[in-house]
Design a protein that fits this description.
Layout lengths: L1 H13 L3 E8 L5 H11 L5 H14 L16 H6 L6 E6 L4 E6 L7 H8 L4 E7 L6 H12 L4 E7 L8 H15 L6 E6 L23 H7 L12 E3 L2 E6 L2 E7 L5 E2 L3 E5 L4 E9 L2 E2 L2 E2 L4 E6 L10 E3 L6 E12 L11 E5 L2 E14 L6 E2 L9 E14 L6 H4 E5 L6 E10 L11 H8 L7 H8 L5 E5 L6 H14 L4 E5 H5 L10 H20 L3 E5 L5 H11 L4 E6 L3 H7 L1 H8 L21 E3 L4 H14 L4
Parallel strand pairs: 1-3, 1-4, 4-5, 5-6, 24-26, 24-27, 25-26, 27-28
Antiparallel strand pairs: 2-3, 7-16, 8-9, 9-15, 10-14, 11-12, 11-16, 12-13, 12-15, 17-21, 17-23, 18-19, 18-22, 19-20, 19-21, 22-23
Length: 634
């Protein structure tokens, strides 16, 4: 009989619903103390925890002679030393009516990102206000964030009423200020409760110090609040996380049900392929099951072989999400660095990762007044509306309808830091997409002028676009130097392009011969290519004999004399002949015409920027790199 009662108790406990909630507020509003008091007064602490709490309160507490209940959650050394919350702390407890997971989030503005973390899965928010201070900026910030996160139930706990002699006037003044602010927000259920977390007033039991308050205590309210309808059970969305293929006889798609319900035998569609099949098996933690719902982790098998990979999504074909690359979103900026609209971010949406950019900033929000203000790039903790474009389509729903399938994060491509969280409002039609092209830009485009200033290219690449023109006889070693220098600069992280005679003559100058006129035309084409590459901020290495001084002057004029630097490979005909004997032999036999140094004069540059010698490879590269550094090219 005793075993039966225990089993009945366990069965009943298993059926209790779970409420996820967060606490937020300004610094020292008493969030951790409130949760600690809630656990203490509801008899949810073990004896060893109580002993440790009493001992720690005397040694590290900030509550005078009283027990410091905040120590139950402030576990970090820095938190205990300063008496503040820094990181999100989670606590689980249960009563006879319900189970709870509480996220205690920091109050400092610099830790707003932690409140986003704690609120991402919460159905209810307890926001604390110090009765001595009333509604302040952080109260408004956290309320607005709760609204953005789609939290439908908010409790404003007016704390430290004991320090205000449990004044009814103080409480109602704060209530009126808060209600005036929240009328502009879409939070359907707001409850206000006067409490003293330190003394336990209205936390678990109704307080005799405030007979004028007729509402429920905090715990009573938490136990009786109806939240089951907050989750989306209508739109089936299953982002594939892993393709499970243990052997040739099994192929399943594992992940977590984001929303909706799926049954065995349902017809489903895979996105983006659009191919359909039916559900063969639904495998959960306890084996096969007939159906699944959020947030269950399951594996689905299909009756047909469909190619599905991580990042793709399984849905019901008669209930499609948006499949778009352009959308508007509310964004909370979480990076200490200012938003840079030139950055191509990584966007993570469910299990899908793609490149994305912020195309436009619609507005930012003044937290105190909820006024829409100038659309400047966001700073840390600023909130506003933006337009986002992704490299590949996302399968999303508006966040207001489906939290799990409407949220995303932006990741910095260099630091891999999460720099923003976003809530999708809806798709944007391509006809109303913002344009970054201003009237000045249009004028530049009409004149063939790049919209990217040279200063921006230099800042991004860490270099200036210049041309190193390496000249010398056949066999002088100019190609060896050019290719080795290309490797050296590339290894230093520079963007470099190499052009040489054989490469250009095999394509761009294919119809030209080696006559003086065609040789001049050949080098003119090379010069224009080098100029275009330099305009793009690219270092260009050109390895060409270019035997005439006047032609080299023309090349310099095309490229720009300030960007043209000539390097002479100092090797005479005899040295060059030793390096390329077969070539010079053919020239001596009359089988090759117009070979500079043999049939025509090679004019040594009068004023080269550098002179190199073929037997000094490493010294030549070092000399050129030093030259580039002195010229502030790299």
């Amino acid at each position: 009989m005793k075993d039966l009662n225990i089993q009945q108790f366990l069965d009943q406990d298993q059926k209790k619903d779970l409420l996820r909630l967060l606490t937020a507020g300004s610094v020292d509003d008493g969030k951790s103390t409130l949760i600690g008091r809630l656990l203490f007064d509801s008899k949810k602490l073990y004896e060893d925890q109580l002993d440790a709490l009493e001992r720690d309160s005397k040694r590290e507490g900030h509550a005078g002679e009283d027990i410091d209940y905040a120590l139950l959650l402030d576990g970090l050394k820095a938190e205990r030393e300063q008496g503040i919350t820094i990181d999100v702390a989670y606590r689980y407890f249960a009563t006879s009516k319900r189970k709870f997971i509480i996220a205690d989030t920091p109050g400092h503005e610099q830790y707003t990102r932690n409140m986003i973390t704690g609120g991402s899965t919460a159905s209810l928010a307890i926001l604390l206000v110090d009765a001595r201070k009333g509604v302040i900026t952080q109260t408004r910030r956290h309320t607005f964030l709760a609204s953005l996160l789609g939290i439908k139930h908010v409790i404003l706990a007016v704390n430290k009423m004991d320090l205000m002699d449990y004044s009814e006037d103080v409480y109602y003044r704060i209530c009126n200020d808060y209600k005036a602010f929240t009328t502009q927000l879409s939070i359907p259920d707001i409850t206000l409760i006067p409490v003293s977390a330190l003394k336990g007033d209205n936390v678990v039991e109704k307080s005799h110090h405030m007979p004028w308050y007729n509402g429920k205590s905090l715990l009573e309210h938490l136990e009786t609040m109806h939240v089951s309808s907050d989750r989306n059970f209508d739109d089936f969305r299953f982002p594939v996380q892993v393709v499970n293929r243990p052997d040739i006889h099994f192929r399943g798609f594992a992940g977590t049900v984001a929303s909706g319900v799926v049954h065995r035998g349902d017809t489903v569609m895979a996105l983006p392929s659009g191919k359909t099949s039916t559900i063969n098996r639904i495998i959960g933690s306890n084996g096969d099951q007939d159906y699944a719902f959020p947030p269950q982790a399951i594996t689905l098998t299909l009756n047909d072989e469909i190619d599905i990979s991580r990042g793709e999504m399984i849905i019901h074909p008669d209930n499609m999400p948006r499949i778009e690359r352009h959308f508007e979103a509310n964004l909370v900026w979480m990076d200490e660095n200012k938003m840079d609209l030139r950055t191509s971010f990584y966007l993570k949406h469910n299990t899908r990762v793609t490149k994305a950019r912020i195309d436009a900033i619609r507005h930012k929000v003044n937290i105190n007044t909820l006024e829409k203000i100038a659309a400047d790039p966001f700073q840390l903790n600023e909130i506003g509306r933006v337009v986002v474009t992704t490299a590949t389509p996302l399968f999303f729903d508006p966040y207001s309808r489906n939290h799990q399938n409407g949220a995303f994060i932006l990741i910095d491509p260099v630091t891999h830091f999460t720099c923003a969280v976003g809530m999708i409002i809806d798709k944007l039609d391509s006809t109303v997409l913002p344009s970054r092209i201003t009237d000045i830009d249009k004028e530049k485009i009409g004149n063939g002028v790049s919209l990217i200033p040279q200063t921006e290219r230099r800042e991004k690449y860490g270099q200036r676009g210049i041309t190193l023109w390496i000249t010398g006889l056949h066999g002088s070693g100019k190609n060896n130097l050019a290719y080795q220098l290309e490797r050296e600069l590339f290894d230093r992280g520079k963007i470099v392009v190499l052009l040489d005679g054989s490469t250009i003559r095999s394509g761009l100058s294919r119809e030209l011969d080696h006559s003086p006129a065609d040789r001049a035309e050949h080098l003119r084409r090379v010069a224009h290519m080098a100029r275009i590459l330099n305009d793009q901020g690219i270092i260009t290495l050109c390895s060409f004999i270019s035997p005439r001084e006047n032609i080299r002057d023309q090349v310099a004029a095309i490229i720009g004399k300030e960007r043209f630097h000539i390097i002479y490979m100092d090797a005479d005909v005899e040295q060059s002949r030793k390096a390329r004997p077969e070539l010079y032999q053919l020239a001596g036999e009359g089988k090759i015409d117009d070979l500079p140094g043999i049939h025509s004069q090679y004019e040594i540059p009068k004023h080269p920027d550098l002179v190199c010698r073929p037997d000094e490879d490493s010294e030549n590269r070092k000399k050129i790199v030093t030259f580039l550094e002195k010229k502030d090219v790299i």
